[in-house]
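=== RUN LOG ===
request id: a7f3
mode: sequence -> structure
chains: 1
length: 73
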Amino acid sequence: MSVSAVYKVSGMSCGHCEGAVSGEISELPGVSSVKAVASTGEVTVISEAALDEEAVRAAVDEAGFELVGTVAV
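=== RESULT ===
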């Protein structure tokens, strides 16, 4: 079973931004898919289990952006 979560990230403006955020989040344990969309600021993450929001926040910070929070799906 996989878990899908959508996060709101501020500061993404281009494909390079999407790649940076996706790259950092995809390194988290259990993550199987990451899709970042700069135009909406949304990052959809599919993982084996629910992720710790602080771990996601740290990954987004590492990429140079700010995690605003989660989006209700």
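=== NOTES ===
The first helix runs from residue 15 to 26.
Helices lie at 15-26, 53-63.
=== END ===
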